[in-house]
Amino acid sequence: MKIKALQQLSNMAGKTGLLLKKHSPAILTTAGIVGTVASAVLACKETLKINEILDEKRRTQAAIHTCLEDEEFASDYSEEDGKKDLTKLYVQTGVKIVKLYAPSVILGSVSIASIVMGHKILKKRNVALAAAYTVVDKGFKDYRKNVVDRFGENIDKELRYNIKAKEIETTTKDKNGKDKKGKEVVYEIENPLEGISEFAKFFDCGSDQHRKDPEYNLMFLRRQQDYANDVLRTRGHLFLNEVYDMLDIPRTKAGQVVGWIYDKDNENGDNYVDFGIYDPREANRRFIDGYEYNILLDFNVDGVIYDKI
Fold first, then answer.
1. Within 10 A of 249 (CB to CB), how many other CB atoms are there?
2. Interhelix angle for 24-69 vs 79-151, to 10°?
3. Alpha-carbon distances of 117 from 26, 31, 208, 235, rounded to whole Å
4. Which strands form 237-239's sheet, in the order they lie side by side?
5. Taking residues 5-32, what's their average pLDDT?
6. Are both 43 and 59 inside the same structural domain?
7. Residue 288 belongs to domain spanning
8. If pLDDT is split at 50, 70 and 90, which confidence band does 189 have?
């Protein structure tokens, strides 16, 4: 029974330790903020007491100067004695002031150190997450490259967007005006949302740049895509959030680190920005043909780029 209780206690301690480690950045940052505020309050409170120390210092200083100026004490209290006493007075006053503010200074220093430590832990975790994502993203891009090299781009698109070949019967007129039956292969997307990346966004009335005019929206998107490519080629990199800004689409956390790199030697990148306007989806075709004025944009980001700039 005791062994079981000890095991449960050990498991509870392990879970508690893991939970504290998991939330340590938030705990350290919160503690640092609270400590900083507390140190400021404590410093203000101790400032009320400093007048007592300064008043005592002024009284003692005045007494020393009085003794130095009084001829009756000239034989027993020399100018050298006065200088020593003044030096001692200044040192004692400084020590009292340091002791007065020491708790608030220590608390403030510990609070700042806590915030910095929480930031460092969070930064290390973000670097680790970015590295993990980079590995997964590279593996996916390598897989797609192998598919393209072996089977071609059409097969790659069919696999990515789950496009299925379907044979349908057709009826046409021959030269004599008689019906002629035949068969035709068409390509359909069984699930239109399958293959969409987590970075895809709708360009619709939520954007101030959107209009209920398919031709205007298509022209606007193409011009913004051209501008994004100009920025990429000129600057060498472009973040996804910057593209979101061009389209008046809300920024995302991933958009801060994900984007494009322009490097001719980069085998894992496309070296261009593509909004996915011409993806082979029925909704995209309706948008391009002018029947629909909303469109789902899926961007061909290279992955995490902030560590490659």
1. 21
2. 160
3. 11, 11, 41, 34
4. 237-239, 258-261, 303-304
5. 71
6. yes
7. 196-304
8. low
